[in-house]
Amino acid sequence: MSQWARFARNCGITMSDFPQQEKPFPGKETAAFENGRLRKNLGRLEAGMDAPRHQRSSDRSIQHPDGEITGTGSCPEVNARGERVWRAGTLVYDRKGLVRLFFWLYIGQFTFWMEQIAIPTLFPLLLKNMGFNAAQIGSLWSIFPLGALVLFPIIGTLSDRLRTRFGRRRPFTFVMAPVWFLGMVLLPFCQTYWQTLMVLVLAGFAGAGSNVLNGLYNDIVPPELLGRFVGGMRFLGNVGGLIVQLGALRLFESHPVAVFIGLVCIGTAGELLMALMVREGEYPPPPPKQPVLQVAGEFLREGFANRYIIFLWLTLGVTALGGPVMGLYFNLFFTDAQHGLGLSATQLGYVLAIGTAIGLVLMLPTGWAIDRFGPKKLWARCGFAVGLAQVLMFFFARDFWSLTALYIVFCAFGAVLTAALLPVMYCYIPQEKFGQLLGSNQIVGRLMQILGANACGGIIAFSGGNYQFTFLFGGIAYMLVPLFLWLMLREPYPYGGLKTSMNPDGNRMATRPKP
Q1: What is the C-alpha to C-alpha distance for residues 87 and 72, in angstroms, rounded to an integer?
Q2: Residue 11 and residue 114: Cα distance in Å, rounded?
Q3: Are 370 and 378 in contact (CB under 8 A)?
Q4: Which residues is 70 bridged to in the sheet?
Q5: Is residue 379 within 8 Å of 232, Cβ to Cβ?
Q6: How does 210-247 read in b/e, with b if 16+ C-beta sit within 10 Å?
Q7: Model-level pTM?
Q8: Tens digit of each residue's pLDDT (9 = 90 or more) over 88-117
C-alpha cells in the first residue's frame, strides 16, 4: 500500500469522497493520480482544508502504536459554508458553539475546582479547630473515598446505559450535587466525632456523583481538543485555588465556618449551572437489560480480570496512595508548632499560592502538548519526578525556605501530572464503557486513598509525630507510576473494537501519513 493510500485510510477517506473516481483506490498508474485530483485533495486535507462533512464519513479511527486500541483522529473538517467544525459523537460545533461549550464548562470547573482545592486545605484546619488530633483527622478524611468506592461503580455503569432527554451523565449531577451541599454545610456544626463521621458519609456518597463529569467531558468535548480542554480546566481551577490561598485562608483564621460554607455554596452553584447549560448528543442504543448478577459479573470481569486493566489501575492508583501526603499532612506539618514548622496559615497560603501560580503558567502549554504529543510520556516522567521531589523533602526540608524550594519543584511536575490524568484515562479506557470502567478505577483508587490516609496517620503516630516520614511514603508511591505504565503497555488491549477517544501519542500520529 502506498504512502498516500495509507494516509487516506488513517483519516477515514473512502472513494465516496471523490465521486469522479471509478475504481477502488488503485495506485499511481490511474487517471486520478495522473490528473492530480487525489494528490490535490489529500494535500488539502493535510493542510487542514478537508471536504465538507456531508460528502464523507465522519468516522476517522486510527490505530494506536501501543497496541490494538482505536481512537478518533484529528483530521480537520469543514461544513457546507466552508467553516471549520468539530465533532463529539453526534454533536457538531462551529467556532461559536465551541466557545459557548467551553465557556459553560469552564464556569462550572472554575467554581468546582475552587471548592475542590479549598476542601483539602481547609478540612484538616477546620477539624483541628474542632479539637480532633492527626489520627482522627486522617480517619475522617478517609471517609470521603467511601462514596466513590461503594456507590460510583453503580452510578458509572448506570450512566453508560441511561438514556433520557437530559442525556446519560447530567441527571446524576442534578441529584447528587444538592446532597453534597447539605453534608458540607452541616460539617462545621458537628459536635462529636461520630456526628462528623455521619455527615462525611452523607457528603462522601453524594460527592461520588461528581465523578460522572469525567464521562461527560469525554462525551461532549471534541477528542482532538481534550488535552487543551483539560489544561484550561486545570488552569481555571488554579485561578480558583489562588483565590482560596491568597484570600480565603486570610479570612479563615477569624471566620472559619463562614469561609468554608461560602466556598461550598459557590462550588455547588457553579456545578449545577454548568450541567444545566451544556447538552449531550444522541448515543447508540443501550445494551439489552440483563439480570443484576450478570451485569455485576461483567463489571468484575471487564474491570479487574485482565492484567492490562490491573496495571492501568495501579499506575493511576499509586498517585491516590501517595496523594494524602501533600493534600493533607503537608498542611499540618507546615502549621504544627510541636511536630512541624509551626508557621501560620497565612504563610501556608503564600506557599500554596506559589505552587498554584506555577500550575497557572504550565497548564495551558501542557494541554497543547498533550493534544500534540500525547499524555503517555508526560504521565510516566512527571510521576517519577513528583515522587523524587517528595523523597528530597524527607531528607532536606528543615525550614521555611528549603521546604518552599522543594515544594516549587513538586508543583511544577505535579501540574503536568494533574493535567495528564484525565487524558491518560481517555487514551486507554473505551468510550462506550467509560462510566463502568471508571467505576472499577474508583474502587482501586479510593481503596488506595483510604490506605494512604490511614497509613500516613499511622506513620505519624508510630514515629512520635514526625510528619516528614510521610514524604518518604508518598514519594515511593509516585515513583512507581512509570513501572506500572510500562507493564500495562506490554499487555494486549482486551476490549476488541471498542474505541477510545484519544491517542496516547497525540494528534500528530493521526495527521500525517506513516512511512
Answers
A1: 10
A2: 40
A3: yes
A4: 63, 499
A5: no
A6: bbbbbbbbbbbbbbbbbbbbbbbbbbbbbbbbbbbbbe
A7: 0.73
A8: 989 999 999 999 999 999 988 888 877 777
